[in-house]
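Request: Mind sharing a record?
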Amino acid sequence: MEMEGLAEGMDETEINALISEYDETVAKEEALQLSLQSNSSQHSTLPPLDETLFARAKAKLQLSEVPQFLPCRETERQEIETFIRAFLEKGAKSETILYISGVPGTGKTATVVGVARTLQAEEGVADFDFVTVNGMNLSTPSKAYSALWWGLTGEKA
């Protein structure tokens, strides 16, 4: 039915030319696919492009991924790092609390995790345990205590 509608107003020569052009296009695409498959299996050591991009994107989108640089968070990062350094210098007996709040997705966790990793890797900084608790993953507020205990000891509370 579609062919009849397409063929209306065309003579047999035009229809045959259209079919021939279509057949040539399909043949070229098949040849190109075979060529790409042959070349990639024989000459390339790289994985297919879609797998590489997908894997990289998937890794970067993991919640545990902390970017090297958070744009527009330099001031906050410096304030947090200064605060934590001062706390570590005072020792564990210090009664200091750092409270960070804000709307989801603004870089709070990423900033703090980045600072903690930097300080833990730095020579001369006192050893410390670092635990993150994502309140969005807790069914009730009291679960925060269990999450902290597990983060510090590895034991279920």
